[in-house]
């Protein structure tokens, strides 16, 4: 299935010169991972505390893009510059689910949006990432399969934030989009479990 994640190698190629300079400056992968999580939590807090002020949603698309860049950077620092560590692996996985929750749960507070699909997406995103990580536990690789991975979720919520920030009111159409997103994340879980088990066997 097509996913924005498939564009990651090209994105990494663009970032590589900057990553090299960061490594030379002594920046660690764990510092980048932590910065991405803190940025996400701070942005989510601003939106959650101001759910009736649509202009704050303009923050989300650039923050989501920056978070995606930082996620790529920390991985490249770890793999290509000898900065891998057990703590880094844990921070990377925890940082992703914390950032997802921090950036997406505030949508449940926005007038006109049902909190049910927002919460469902957040829970399923955590389950999806856990399903991916468990591939390594049973002797396979970290799984990123499925049509609604981290980058795809970021695209959906970034686009929704942009539309709402321009003053378009949230109605049933938002709930439909979010419900479809939740369904596709559930598909992620099934695919990752099946392929993880098949790889391990």
Contiguous uncertain segments of 5+ residues: none
Separation of termini?
23 Å
How much is the average pLDDT?
Answer: 93
CATH topology: Four Helix Bundle (Hemerythrin (Met), subunit A)
Topology:
Blueprint (H helix, E strand, L loop, with lengths): L7 H17 L4 H21 L10 H21 L5 H19 L10 H23 L12 H16 L6 H29 L1
Helix pairs in contact: 1-3, 2-3, 2-4, 3-6, 4-5, 5-7
Organism: Kroppenstedtia guangzhouensis
Protein name: CDP-alcohol phosphatidyltransferase
Pfam families: CDP-OH_P_transf (PF01066)
Explain this structure.
Helix 2 (29-49) packs antiparallel against helix 3 (60-80) and helix 5 (115-137) packs parallel to helix 7 (172-200). The protein has a single domain (4-200), classed as Up-down Bundle (Four Helix Bundle (Hemerythrin (Met), subunit A)). It has 201 residues and is an all-alpha fold. The chain contains seven helices and no strands. It has helices at residues 8-24, 29-49, 60-80, 86-104, 115-137, 150-165, 172-200. The radius of gyration is 17 Å and the shape is globular.
Short description:
The protein is mainly alpha-helical.
Write out key terms for the chains shown.
single chain; 201 residues; Four Helix Bundle (Hemerythrin (Met), subunit A); transmembrane; CDP-OH_PTrfase_TM_dom; CDP-alcohol phosphatidyltransferase
């Amino acid at each position: 299935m097509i996913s924005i994640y498939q564009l990651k190698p090209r994105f990494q190629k663009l970032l590589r010169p900057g990553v090299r300079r960061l490594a030379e400056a002594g920046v660690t992968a764990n510092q980048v991972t932590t910065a991405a999580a803190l940025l996400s939590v701070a942005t989510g807090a601003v939106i959650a505390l101001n759910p009736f002020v649509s202009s704050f949603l303009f923050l989300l698309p650039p923050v989501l893009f920056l978070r995606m860049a930082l996620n790529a950077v920390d991985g490249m620092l770890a793999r290509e510059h000898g900065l891998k560590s057990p703590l880094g692996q844990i921070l990377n996985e925890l940082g992703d689910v914390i950032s997802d929750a921090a950036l997406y749960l505030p949508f449940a507070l926005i007038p006109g949006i049902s909190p049910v699909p927002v919460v469902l997406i957040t829970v399923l995103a955590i389950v999806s990432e856990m399903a991916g990580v468990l591939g390594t536990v049973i002797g396979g690789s970290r799984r990123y399969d499925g049509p609604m991975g981290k980058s795809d979720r970021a695209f959906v919520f970034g686009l929704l934030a942009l539309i709402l920030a321009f003053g378009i009111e949230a109605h049933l159409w938002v709930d439909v989009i979010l419900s479809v997103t939740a369904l596709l994340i559930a598909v992620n879980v099934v695919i990752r479990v099946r392929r993880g088990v098949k790889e391990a066997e």
